Amino acid sequence: MNQTLHQRVRWAAWIAAAAVAVCVLLLTISYAAARLQAPRDEKTVAELKRKVREDASFAPRIEAEHKRITAALQQRRKRDDVIAIVLLLAASLFVAAAKWLAACGGRRQLPMDRLVQLKAAPRQGPALTLPAAPGGAEEPHQAFVERIVEQHGRSREAAIPILQAIQAHYRYLPDEALKLVCELTEITPAQIAGSSSFYSQFRRSPRGRHVVRVCHGTACHVAGARLITDELRRRLEIPGGADTDAQRLFTVDEVACVGCCSLAPVIMVDGQTVGKLTPTGACDALDGIRSPSPA
Ligand code: FES
Predict the structure, then answer these.
(1) Is the entire prediction scored with pTM above 0.90?
(2) For a substitution probing ligand 1, which of 226, 254, 266, 273 has the most ligand atoms within 8 Å of its CB?
(3) What pLDDT score does 255 carry?
(4) Which stretches within 55-173 are classed as H helix?
(5) Residue having the nearest C-alpha atom to atom 1 of ligand 1
(6) Dihedral through CA 246, CA 251, CA 254, CA 258, nearest 10?
(7) Which domain, by its residues, includes 15?
(8) Is residue 205 part of a domain?
């Protein structure tokens, strides 16, 4: 359902953008037409005035001409007002939709097609191998999924608590765990896709053992947050489009103001705030917690 919502918002953004373009075009045409028409009207009135001086019977025609020009002007203003209102509404809708899509776009979308295929095709062969849970949980992974399903139920209403439990255990939602959930419950791949992409608490990609949040609030942005993020990503060799290094040691997130603007630029490493940083200083701050072993 939320996937449908995503598509609808995308369509709304496109329609709003098209409406903005049409309104701007109409206003431009209206303005250009008025600029072209004004000299013609002035010329007509001047001509009539000249004729009135020679023949008084032309006086009513001047009055009629003035009325026509005034009526045309008022009509154009009304039309432009309506277009301007539509333009404002469309622009507001576009900005709102674009913000929503941008917020959703930061999270990797669920490969729904793949999950649907998995749901359709019963699993055969050896048991699934789930990624290791952080913290070295001793419980077998399949047993973990079965346990949380038993705990929260098999109905569709249990989707969010189950996803939350998986997220809390693995710090992201592994495809293999989601497949097991689909097999063991009435929850559908589409429902999982919708929930996991709609709620920002869910991640579809693995998280590093340490989470580095780089503040990109206004104060930190002005103080060089972008340089810090870029340097961290470069030093940690995080590829473009990803937020976690290959060893799953560090995840670098860009976040809004964390409330320590006087220390800008600020990063938070596993919840600890470090401020007044340079790009090099930010990398040095990670050196103390670097570990050669992967998560
Ligand atoms: S803007 Fe970074 S802490 Fe406020």
Answers:
(1) no
(2) 266
(3) 92
(4) 59-105, 112-120, 141-152, 159-170
(5) 217
(6) -170
(7) 2-105
(8) no
- Gap between the Cα atoms of 188 and 182, Å rounded: 6
What is the pLDDT, as a whole number, of residue 222? 95
Task: Flag whether 292 is in a domain.
Answer: no
- Is residue 155 located within the same domain as residue 239? no
**Number of structural domains found in the chain:** 3
Looking at the fold, whether 14 and 48 belong to one and the same domain comes out as: yes
Same domain, 8 and 54: yes
pLDDT-based confidence at residue 150 (cuts at 50, 70, 90): very high
Residue 221 domain-assigned?
yes
CA of 219 to the centre of ligand 1 (A): 5
> How confident is residue 154, by pLDDT bands cut at 50, 70 and 90?
very high
Tell me the pLDDT tens digit for each residue of 18-67: 999 999 999 999 898 888 888 888 888 888 888 887 877 878 887 888 88
Mutate to test the pocket of ligand 1, among 212, 213, 220, 268 (most ligand atoms within 8 A of CB): 220
What's phi and psi for 274, nearest 5 deg?
-130, 130
Q: Which helix (H) or strand (E) holds 211?
A: strand 210-215
Cα(270) to centroid(ligand 1), Å: 17
Distance 217 CA to ligand 1 centre (A): 5
